[in-house]
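Record type: ASSEMBLY
Status: queued
Input:
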Amino acid sequence: MNLIKSKIPRKREFRIDEIRNDFPILQRLVNGKPLVYLDNAATTQKPDFVIEAIKHYYDFENANIHRGLHFLSEVATEAYETARLKVKEFLNALSASEIIFVRGTTEAINLIASTMEKSKRLNPGDEVIITNMEHHANIVPWQLICGEEGIKLRVIPITDSGELILDDFENMFNEKTKLVSVVQVSNTLGTINPVEKIISIAHKHNVPVLLDGAQAVSHQKIDVQKLDCDFYSFSGHKLYGPTGIGVLYGKTHLLDSLPPYQGGGDMIRTVTFEKTTFNDLPHKFEAGTPNIVGAIGLAIAINYLNAFDLQDIIQHENKLLEYATKELSKIDGLKIIGTAKDKAPVISFVIDGIHPYDIGTLLNSDGIAIRTGHHCTQPIMDRFKISATARASFAFYNTQQEIDILINSLNKTIEILK
Amino acid sequence: MTIQKNHENIINEFSNLLDWDEKYKYIIQLGRKMEPYPEGFKTDKFKIEGCQSQVWLYAKSENGKIYFYADSDALIVRGLSAILVRAYSGFSPEQILSVKPDFIKEIGIDNQLSPTRKNGLMSMLKQIYDYAKVFKIINKQ
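Status: finished
Output:
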């Protein structure tokens, strides 16, 4: 039985109570109170559909892939490769060989940085254009390559509302510009960036574009052909799938032109002590036994989501964003950091005279999970001259009542701390 | 008062607090009442690395006893550091080194002091014991 093919659910109406029942963890108590999970930008919870599929795989299908000709190895290989096909459909890639399974968005970006350096597509003194709202995962990999001289990062600035200022973007290109690597949706500000425009400008200058889609995949339709991005990356655990699995998409001719990332089993064609020849895409980039069950879990999560009309999910999340923004804005001294017109359901905020750490700690005692800190985006903190924010981020299983609980607890918290 | 008795007092005070709301309110109050941190010592040298909040710890030795002063930009962390200051301040290095920080678990703030909280309190506690070790040697010279 191929789990991914057989687990395709019937189309479902968007009924929030039923959806919440799909997620076992949402039924639990924290500190004696019902869990209010508002840290979805960090990771999303998993539906029982995914959890059961992982157990089913280990109960009935576990074997190593691409190696044995015995029954289980074939079953496992087929499941893994079906997962790749599922991701190919999800991103609307041209071919399944353009889908590389990695550990997550971070590894995807490191893979591109490392292989572009190895193949001398990036040399010391070359330039990569990023934005002021990148996650550290799209800053540090570029700083780690090309030795002492390193790569020069050109940074697209942002407005006070957290939107990109693209006026000077065209002028940032020169003969040393080798890549544009930008975040599609900001994990801290929630801003949805105009990546189509960025891609079309970069392509006018013959520069490829890598998108960090970690925060985008769960909130909008991704079509890599329509976007015409050259590379796309995301993490499974932010799409209701397991941790430890992610995806790097790349256009075939670009992936073909890059050397292997790591060496090991499965990525080779022939090995002698003198010379090794490498396997074709996508296996060239998947050395060693991959995260088989992670890939399957991710594919099942995509199946689960496909049962819904994406528009229903987007509409529900937008309502949550709108309601939470309205209610939070009523709180005296509270300032939302990131007020772009086009936003994903992520709200970062600061409150006059109160440290985010205190807010997070007191909300936690009411069973509410939010994130506090710099969210791995220190340059954003510098830009807004703050050291940290509190951040509530929503998923399609969150409710208006949960926002009410957040607001009540927040008012109580302020009372205690003021 | 012995350092053991001092720790017992802290445990007793917390045993009257019924829920976490009460506990946090009390912790915040302790932070507010803490003796002000001496001027001029809020420097990197006295800063304890935490991830989310900043914490400072200063210690001085007078007549064979160590006096601790702490501060933080987060109220709860400040309050928790006030508990540590109260637990160890005004005792000799020998007395400090003779007790284990068991009261932390007893009053239920051990999860706040776990290394994964990254609020610097775990390091602060270690620092208090380190100060005691150092002053013990200095006092003997």
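Annotation: Chain A touches chain B at residues 31, 354-358, 361-362, 365, 372-373, 387-388, 412, 416-417 (CB under 8 Å).
Annotation: Chain A has 14 helices and 17 strands.
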